[in-house]
Amino acid sequence: MTPELAGVEMDGLTVRYGGKTAVEGLTLAAPLGRVTGLIGPNGAGKTTTFGAVSGLVPPSAGTVRLFGSDVSRRSAAARARLGLGRTFQRPEVCPSLTVMDNVALGCEALAAGGNLWRQIVPRRNDTARLRTQAAQALAACDITELADAPVAALSVGQRRLVELARVHAGGYRMLLLDEPSSGLDPAETARFGAIVRGLVAESGAGVLLVEHDMSLVMEVCDYLYTLDFGRLIFAGTPAETRASAAVRAAYLGDDDDALSTVDG
Fold it and tell me: Is the C or the N end of the chain the one with fewer CB within 10 Å?
């Protein structure tokens, strides 16, 4: 893959916990400018894969590359400074802060583990820059009207958008979204998916998405990887994934109604 398109790449990624192999020999590419999906049943190794990509779980074998550079042994903070942002299965927000302040934290997170003095004594224009970036992210995620609201008063769907705005505000070029539709109703899920597609189209960022809501997956993803018991069993477009007998047997089943968006 050319350096200008390279986002996250895994080559032979293996993760073991004691005597258990959670992920075995996974090779995957999630380039910039594309929404890539990682799907599979519970226990398939998706969360472990995210942990290995983000630096929270050390690989037992194989490599993880970010924008063409081997980051297999680099810390989570170092990967964030390179441009890797992440959301989690449960919204990780600060309820006591306003939406604006939560989103502004995304900008400051890029400095984590860097120059300590710069974090204690910011430059004169740092505060204004952070507020501008946060305001732009709020607009991109269509939640500008919530800027002054305390996060504690928001719905789950609104908190998901705050998380998305926070990673967007930081200028992260690669986003890991971990089950972002959890707790959302169908209308909120559709809105979230449209906003994700818009961010990718506007910024050229890449997205690696773990998700169980197949309507969202089939609507927003350009390419899918399917795991089962820690191994890759199929890779292809949403339409190809739907047609795969292996994927149907392991995960999707034969519920054509749930997957009808693939043909739409």
Answer: C
d(CA 93, CA 164): 11
- With DSSP H G I counted as helix, E B as strand and the rest as coil, what are the percentages for the chain, rounded to 5? 40, 25, 35
Query: What CA–CA distance (Å, rounded) separates 28 from 38?
Result: 10
pLDDT band at 4 (very low <50, low <70, confident <90, very high): low
Of 104, 189, 181, 183, nearest to 148 by C-alpha is 104
Separation of alpha carbons 16 and 24, rounded Å: 8
CB 98 within 8 A of CB 162: no
pLDDT digits (tens, 9 = 90+) for 122-168: 566 767 778 888 999 999 999 999 999 999 999 988 999 999 999 88
Averaged pLDDT for residues 167-179: 90
Per CATH, the number for 1-83+173-264 is 3.40.50.300
Q: How far apart are CA 212 and CA 18, in angstroms?
A: 28
Q: Where are the domains of the chain?
A: 1-83+173-264, 93-170
C-alpha to C-alpha distance for 207 and 205, rounded to whole angstroms: 7
Q: Taking a C-beta distance cutoff of 8 angstroms, is the pair 140, 168 a contact? A: yes
Angstrom distance (rounded) from CA 251 to CA 3: 34
